[in-house]
Design brief:
This protein is an all-alpha fold and 125 residues long. It contains six helices and no strands. It is flat, with a radius of gyration of 19 Å.
Amino acid sequence: MAQFSLDDVKLQIKKACQIYRKYPTPKPKQPHSCLASSIISTANENYNSPLSPTPKEIDMADTVQFVWLNWVTPTERRILWQKYDGVPWKILAYDEGMTIRQARYKAQKALEKILSILIKESKNQ
């Protein structure tokens, strides 16, 4: 049975944001040559990046984004994701149309909601 704390939930959301930031950016299509050397060099460039996330990291990030964050409301989801992606409280609160105090309160309540569901699920297993 896994023990979770509020700090664990925060850390997992932050890691998920970092993993999604490591995804390779799509490059615009460029005219290409039929020479094999140019095809091989671009293929190696895209797939052997040392910064690409591992499959285990991707699974963890997907679990956080598509399971954990679906337990909260869309507003709370946006607040949590943006906060742990590095957006300052002031900008985050302005974007959501609330005060900084309200945004922090919603984020705290969302984290507590996620934590309670995780604890409940770990007890059932």
